[in-house]
Write a structure and sequence with these properties.
Radius of gyration: 17 Å
Structural class: alpha/beta
Distance between the termini: 29 Å
Number of helices: 5
CATH architecture of the largest domain: Alpha-Beta Barrel
Helix content: 25-40%
Order of helices and strands: EHHHEEEEEEEHEH
Strand content: 15-25%
Largest sheet: 5 strands, mixed
CATH superfamily of the largest domain: Aldolase class I
CATH topology of the largest domain: TIM Barrel
CATH class of the largest domain: Alpha Beta
Shape: globular
Number of domains: 2
């Protein structure tokens, strides 16, 4: 489903709102965690990917909601060390960058918290973009989950908020994203 079909982004629902949907459908309490794990731990692109969720529940969700998963538009891989720069397109068409940094015993992903930046630091290329908007907690966490999902054989465990924007200028979403990463990326 896409935003153009006039359905609501499921990632904008609070855990209580999402849990209420499952309760209304007569589903067990654990269904909430199953869906949240697919959204935040795996960055599922569709409800069909949620194979441990009953088909009827997936169909219900797909009829009323969409997953605003960022799309990888471009990757640039360093031949020297495998560092990979990602350009993600968000549901509204704006774009942000994230970077995968391979290490010897674990890997790191640098993620963005904003589209552009409002602070205008002269040493930073992002300043030239100006500020467009804050990312949602889901958009922040999804960058990590998508990149980690592409490398199941690697120990991708560190997230660093050093991409576009100033994370503390988007405090609530950044803190929520960090909690989502702690809960669903372990």
């Amino acid at each position: 489903m896409s935003a153009a079909e006039n359905v609501y982004p499921i990632t904008e629902l609070s855990p209580a709102e999402l849990g209420g949907i499952f309760k209304g459908l007569g589903e067990p309490d654990y269904r909430l965690e199953q869906v949240r794990r697919w959204l935040y731990g795996r960055a599922a692109g569709s409800f069909d990917e949620m194979t441990d969720v009953p088909a009827g529940v997936r169909d219900y969700l797909a009829a009323a909601y969409y997953i605003p998963r960022p799309e990888v538009l471009e990757t640039v891989v360093s031949a020297a060390d495998g560092t990979t720069k990602y350009l993600f397109q968000l549901a509204d068409g704006l774009a942000v960058e994230a970077v995968y940094l391979p290490g010897e015993d674990h890997d790191t992903v640098c993620i963005s918290a904003q589209v552009g930046c409002r602070f205008g630091c002269r040493f930073c290329a992002t300043a030239s973009l100006g500020f467009r908007r804050n990312l949602t907690a889901y958009e922040i966490a999804a960058q990590f989950a998508i990149i980690r999902g592409e490398r199941p054989e690697r120990n991708v465990r560190n997230a660093v908020l050093m991409g576009q924007g100033e994370p503390l200028d988007n405090y609530d979403a950044t803190v929520t994203a960090v909690r989502l990463l702690q809960d669903y990326q372990g």
